[in-house]
């Protein structure tokens, strides 16, 4: 009142402190763990939570008001058979009715546990072209680019080398062309050498496979500096090693 400077005040609406409401997914998917709160993001009238790895035990949704008061919105909401544990999913929550929409954005695939070690294997007619542990090629400790296997081969055996990963054949060696066919000069207990870089040289089959000849030979026709030659003496097999090659009865021997 300007005449006397008096003021009359009437409360017509009491002030209420604004409430900051945030929605959370609440779960304890890790066995024995405390409840985990995952904050959702407002999306129009709904709230969303993206790329969550689902634990497979249902979900609870809560509001948290001013970081103090938690209120259930949807409790023990199970997702059904379409969503599996460890699927990556997106959640959309409608607070008006507590409904939940779940979209699988990455279906979980059980990892393969290999039954045999990843690496190079000899396959052929003698093992039905099936990789197995006893045909695993070990890396040559003297040459990292080379692999080897001591094996008993028979005349007319057909062979190749394969690379195996997660129990599946990834690559054949040689990738194209015929199989290596064992002849009389390579029959019996022998050593097979393999080079995946195909740099074995002209005396190697397709540049990647070399089988040491097994014929019993004398030393009269042997060149110097051999890498390895097999010799049967008194019924026992001996391997002589050097650095290069021998020529034995017309056969080049590493």
What does this protein structure show overall?
- It is a single chain.
- By secondary structure, the chain is an all-beta fold.
- It has strands at 21-27, 36-39, 41-43, 46-53, 59-65, 69-77, 88-94, 99-106, 119-124, 138-140, 143-153, 158-165, 168-173, 180-181, 188-194, 209-211, 228-233, 236-241, 246-248, 251-253.
- Strands 2-1-5-6 form a four-stranded antiparallel sheet, with no helix packed on it. A four-stranded antiparallel sheet has the order 3-4-7-8, with no helix packed on it.
- Strand 10 (138-140) and strand 11 form a beta hairpin.
List the helices and strands and how they pair.
Layout: E1 21-27, E2 36-39, E3 41-43, E4 46-53, E5 59-65, E6 69-77, E7 88-94, E8 99-106, E9 119-124, E10 138-140, E11 143-153, E12 158-165, E13 168-173, E14 180-181, E15 188-194, E16 209-211, E17 228-233, E18 236-241, E19 246-248, E20 251-253
Antiparallel strand pairs: 1-2, 1-5, 3-4, 4-7, 5-6, 7-8, 9-12, 10-11, 11-15, 12-13, 12-14, 15-16, 17-18, 19-20
Quick rundown:
Helix content is 0%, strand content 46%. The protein contains no helices and 20 strands.
